[in-house]
# Entry
Amino acid sequence: MLDAKTIETIKSTVPVLEVHGQTITKQFYQMMFKNHPELLNIFNHANQRQGKQPAALANAVYAAAAHIDRLEEILPVVKDIAQKHRALGIMPEHYPIVGENLLAAIKTVLGDAATDEIIDAWAKAYGVIADVFIGVEAEMYKDAEQQKGGWRGWRKFVVDRKVKESDVITSFYLKPEDGGDIASYKPGQYITVRVKPEGQEFTHLRHYSLSTSPGHDYYRISVKREDAVNGNPAGVVSTYLHEKINEGGILDISAPAGNFVLDQTKEIPVVLLSGGVGLTPMVSMLETLLEDGSNRDIVYIHAARCGSYHAMKEHIDKLTREHQGQLRSYHVYESPAEGESCDKTGYIDLPWLKTVADPSADFYFCGPLPFMRAINRALKEWGVPEERIHFEFFGPADSL
Ligand code: HEM
# Structure
């Protein structure tokens, strides 16, 4: 436990961090990658470029510092981050590297204002915060390894089938190369893929939501090809998977993770909403709901640019026919091609949502940020309480 003086120093420097937080974390990453270039094998380079990861880390450090004397209050947030850390293979020995470089960055940016007293206090506080993460992650590594079919770290999987789902989305069915069992998962969870495309200096890691119900002898991920747009380069991993990885190809995979999961203990209606490739966790949840024998009334709404971008349409249509009376599904096209039919043109909005969904339902949604913001705003305006609103971001968590 930290002494009262250290706690006071930490709390009084939080406002300073808030002003310089982004500068400090950017400086921190530059220093850390210069001193430890091997960490570029773990961090997402695209997130770095877009400044997303520095922002996420900065926010987490403020939150932790502001709660330094009651860290248990931020434990749920720690657990979300720790799930990602576990999936990426972050180890206890990585923590001192982050700590040393963070302190050096604080010194560099704050200059004389960073007195020895302040630096000592932050060193102690970082140690306490790091120990919380290391402890939570140790439990997660143990759970991942000890469950039936589970494993620690990376395991080789063979692409058993590769199926094109739309112009931009392709599914990969993955079976373990060793022929053993695979760990089960909860609908909504993701697996992490590690690849090293030819010509790339570092390995690249990406999380992909599992896109079927659990209980098969394979994992399925459905990946959107991220082409170069608006000055942003094409996605290294998605392009590699689409273009270079074929049936028989091998991928390194870490065990399922993630806290965005379907609550199967509930009996109230469920509304699932997805935008674009955000359909992956939703299809997993939908299949699970239909298979688990519950009688919950289900509405599934999918938004896509147009028909050629609409993945898994036939599958969803078939499920809707087979489960008439329990499942209703709708699709919304931003700009349908000529002759394409859809249930709504443009975007999902509250007046339309009110005609198809029930506000007493549990709502789950996933998709691009503008989609998520629009849905969240609509649900709030409709009066849906927070505890029935569940969502997940692609990439580093952001605020709606
Ligand atoms: C992701 C916080 C330590 C590597 C994240 C995220 C946060 C965070 C908030 C974003 C989670 C999200 O995607 O929603 C922290 C804090 C740490 C810490 C507060 C220390 C107490 C570490 C260490 C490493 C590490 C020691 C390894 C050297 C990563 C990586 C990601 C990540 C690779 C994924 C993001 C990306 O690749 O863009 N962390 N982290 N973190 N963290 Fe940490």
Summary: The chain has a mean pLDDT of 93. The chain is about 40% helix and 20% strand. The chain has three domains: 4-146, 155-257, 270-392.
